[in-house]
């Protein structure tokens, strides 16, 4: 299991989702991805993307004007 | 054998319905949403303070969740440039290359379909709904030029069109498809109601900034100033933000209109020289292009005009270059009658 940090600061919808989606495609089930964003829309969009693609949101919080989401990658094959 | 379709999901009502019609027939569907850089999705809501109360959801994701399907959002910003620069079938009323855009997206979806072993593509298109890309005579052009031929099914208007492969092969029942046509949205709204969709993105307004007259004027101005049709992602994002004022052909000012935009523009201060009022509350301004020393003062006077010191004899501003070096300027704000109409892009 690994934890990757993904810098999505200054990116606007839907780029943070695209970055998360593309990075998760490279990770293994059980890995964690922490996305750091500045677009408030990510608080809706990244969890929605995770729900429809079967990944788990472990944490989402606002810290110093940055939106931080922690995702656990799930095995979605089959 | 369950057949698999890939759906082009815009986030609007039509694609939502098209997918549900297919699901009703037992087809497995996954969605694709292409990001061109010009999509009217969330961006300005996330920037402007006045828009903070608007829902910040991405409608394509929201639709996918309502439908219970996977959604793949694909960045086509770079490849899409060629569609914007050289549309084979020309532009619409503004810089919208709608027919070429549709062909390009269907072609990309076809490549995805083939790579992922899906059977056909569906779209929410309706004959006669759009003046360029959704006419009875242009819809076959999309099929031919994209290479998808008869593996493209438009469930909402299929009965107005020749039967496609999925219909002929019996994967879907043509009798359970629809014959919508024209610009009225009433049939779609009735179908949405029948399916129990009470909440969906409002259909009016389009989903692409290139259909917007003001935005197209700004893009054309950018191309003219640079002497060629080019843009980077940051250029097209910045066209959505602030007042754009071009006092000289060589440079342009991007002046924030409110706090949210100012905050957004701050993120670009390493890429663009900037001006910010210090003696009075006021906007942040990025300077895009080549300018001479004396033009900094001209720019400062224009920015001061949009500050709370607009009626003061002098306003102090900080000029900052892309290296972070700063210096102070003291200028009289430009009187309103000296701000030429033709400067405002």
TrEMBL record, chain A:
Indicate the segments forming the UPF0033 domain, all copies.
Answer: 5-72
Top-rank taxon: Bacteria
Q: Which organism is it from?
A: Thiolapillus brandeum
| Family indicated by similarity | Belongs to the sulfur carrier protein TusA family.
What InterPro entries does this protein map onto? TusA-like, TusA-like_sf
Q: What is this protein called?
A: UPF0033 domain-containing protein
UniProtKB/TrEMBL annotation, chain B:
Under the heading InterPro entries, the entry gives: NFACT-R_2, Rossmann-like_a/b/a_fold
- Annotated ranges, domain NFACT protein RNA binding: 242-343
User: Which top-rank group of organisms is this from?
Assistant: Bacteria
List the Pfam families: NFACT-R_2, tRNA_Me_trans
Q: What protein is this chain from?
A: Thiamine biosynthesis protein
Q: Which organism is it from?
A: Thiolapillus brandeum
């Amino acid at each position: 299991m690994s934890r990757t940090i993904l810098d999505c600061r200054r990116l606007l919808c839907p780029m943070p989702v695209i970055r998360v989606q593309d990075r998760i495609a490279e990770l293994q089930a059980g890995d964690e991805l922490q996305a750091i964003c500045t677009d408030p829309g990510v608080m809706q969009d990244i969890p929605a993307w995770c729900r429809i693609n079967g990944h788990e949101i472990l944490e989402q919080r606002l810290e110093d004007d940055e939106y931080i989401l922690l995702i656990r990658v799930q095995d979605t094959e089959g | 054998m369950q057949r698999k379709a890939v759906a082009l999901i815009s986030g609007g009502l039509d694609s939502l319905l098209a997918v549900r019609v297919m699901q009703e027939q037992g087809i497995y569907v996954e969605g694709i949403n292409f990001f061109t850089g010009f999509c009217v999705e969330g961006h300005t809501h996330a920037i402007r303070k006045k828009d903070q109360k608007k829902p910040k959801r991405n409608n394509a994701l929201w639709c996918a969740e309502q439908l219970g399907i996977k959604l793949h959002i694909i960045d086509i910003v770079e490849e899409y440039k060629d569609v914007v620069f050289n549309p084979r079938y020309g532009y619409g009323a503004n810089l919208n290359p709608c027919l070429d855009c549709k062909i390009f997206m269907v072609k990309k979806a076809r490549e995805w379909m083939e790579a992922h072993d899906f059977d056909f593509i569906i779209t929410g298109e309706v004959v006669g709904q759009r003046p360029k890309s959704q006419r009875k005579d242009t819809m076959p052009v999309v099929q031919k030029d994209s290479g998808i031929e008869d593996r493209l099914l438009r469930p909402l208007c299929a009965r107005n069109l020749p039967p496609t492969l999925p219909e002929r092969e019996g994967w879907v029942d043509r009798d359970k498809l629809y014959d919508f046509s024209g610009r009225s949205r009433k049939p779609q709204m009735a179908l949405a109601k029948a399916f129990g969709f009470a909440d969906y993105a409002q259909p009016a307004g389009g989903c692409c900034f290139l259909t917007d007259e003001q935005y197209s004027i700004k893009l054309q101005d950018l191309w003219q100033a640079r002497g060629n049709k080019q843009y980077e992602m940051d250029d097209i994002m910045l066209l959505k933000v602030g007042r754009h004022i071009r006092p000289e052909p060589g440079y342009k000012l991007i002046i924030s209109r409110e706090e949210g935009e100012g905050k957004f523009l701050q993120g670009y201060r390493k890429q663009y020289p900037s001006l910010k009022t210090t003696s009075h509350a006021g906007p942040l301004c990025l300077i895009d292009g080549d300018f001479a020393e004396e033009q900094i003062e001209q720019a400062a006077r224009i920015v001061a005009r949009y500050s709370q010191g607009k009626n003061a004899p002098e306003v102090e501003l900080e000029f900052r270059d892309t290296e972070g070096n700063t210096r102070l300027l003291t200028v009289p704000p430009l009187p309103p009658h000296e701000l030429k109409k033709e400067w405002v892009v």
